[in-house]
Design brief:
It is a single chain. It contains 8 helices and 7 strands, in the order βαβαβαβαβαβαααβ. The protein is an alpha/beta fold. It has 2 domains: 6-186 and 227-252, NAD(P)-binding Rossmann-like Domain (Rossmann fold), CATH 3.40.50.720; 187-225, no CATH class. It has a 7-stranded parallel beta sheet with strand order 3-2-1-4-5-6-7, sandwiched between helices. 45% of the residues are buried. Bound molecules: nicotinamide-adenine-dinucleotide. Residues 11-17, 34-36, 63-65, 90-93, 113-114, 140, 142, 185, 187-188, 190-193 line the site of nicotinamide-adenine-dinucleotide. Nicotinamide-adenine-dinucleotide is lined by residues 11-17, 34-36, 63-65, 90-93, 113-114, 140, 142, 185, 187-188, 190-193.
């Protein structure tokens, strides 16, 4: 890479986003990190990644559940590096309840972060990409962007929406040097899923390890978790020149969950 590419990864202080940030850093991208961290934790993360990979880092603690927060993140990246080459829309939250008991404020919060934040970020970052004739947009949806599961009305609706948004952006940018794809992971062992396993263990009165095994068994035929590192390397490939014609796709990484 002649000039360092600049990547913005939302929700990159934890879990999948952090795995993606680490892979992009390993492939030489400068990073703009984002997530809900204390300034001390964010400084430590920025310094550690900069030192390990010899890249430059910046951090924005913007709350992406509002359009203004997303604008703040994109503007921070533009101000610090002058451009955005790779935008990864990863930040997301979960809440589970039957649809008729689903709290309205949880619905609104999930739609705002898991779907609308990606729209706001793409809308603001895309003009610069089109001007430079190069850009990579990667949305992190879920298998729940392709299939449903009980008690996840807001999450499934938002993730299906994200897959649809990715297709439209790919069509509108086709041939411009910009690509847009949506990654659909199955179970990944992160704080978001650890909480669901703990809830399951408590509800069934079983040990955490058993609940974790049951969770995999139920949906993911490989019975193995997808890892943040595996997703990071996929995103690094999507950001590479080799993926120039790979656009408009929903890519499942799910141990065959959606194959049956
Ligand atoms: P996580 O809870 O480990 O990380 C979420 C990240 O988002 C953190 O950095 C957090 O600080 C940030 N965040 C939360 N609310 C925010 C807000 N309002 N503004 C800005 N940042 C915010 O979760 P994860 O499992 O790594 O999930 C990352 C993405 O991957 C989510 O979109 C999730 O839906 C998706 N996903 C996860 C799994 C899984 O099994 N873990 C599977 C498929 C898809």
């Amino acid at each position: 890479m002649q000039q360092h590419s600049v990547a913005v990864v939302t929700g990159s202080t934890s879990g999948i986003g952090l795995g993606i940030a680490r892979s992009l850093a390993a492939h030489g991208h400068h990073l703009v990190l984002n997530g809900l961290s204390t300034p001390l934790e964010a400084d430590a993360l920025c310094a550690a990644l900069a030192q390990e990979f010899g890249i430059e880092t910046a951090y924005s603690g913007a709350d992406l559940s509002h359009a203004d927060g997303v604008a703040g993140l994109i503007d921070t990246a533009q101000a610090r590096f002058g451009r955005i080459d790779v935008l990864v829309n990863n930040a997301g939250i979960q809440f589970t309840a039957p649809v008729h008991e689903f709290p309205v404020e949880r619905w609104d919060a999930i739609l705002a972060l898991n779907l609308s934040a990606a729209f706001h970020a793409i809308r603001r970052a895309l003009p610069g990409m089109l001007e430079r004739g190069h850009g990579r947009i990667v949305n992190i949806a879920s298998v729940h962007g392709l299939v449903g599961s009980v008690h996840k009305a807001a999450y499934v609706a938002a993730k299906h929406g994200l897959v649809g948004l990715g297709k439209v952006v790919a069509l509108e940018t086709a041939g411009s040097g910009v690509t847009c794809n949506t990654v659909c992971p199955g179970w990944v062992l992160t704080p978001l899923v650890e909480k669901q396993i703990a809830e399951r263990a408590a509800m069934e009165g079983i040990p955490y390890a058993q609940a974790s095994g049951e969770l995999l068994e139920e949906k993911q035929p490989s019975k193995q978790f997808v890892t943040p590192e595996q997703l990071g390397e996929l995103v690094a490939f999507l950001a590479s020149p080799a993926a120039a014609q790979l656009t408009g796709q929903a890519i499942a990484v799910d141990g065959a969950w959606t194959a049956r």
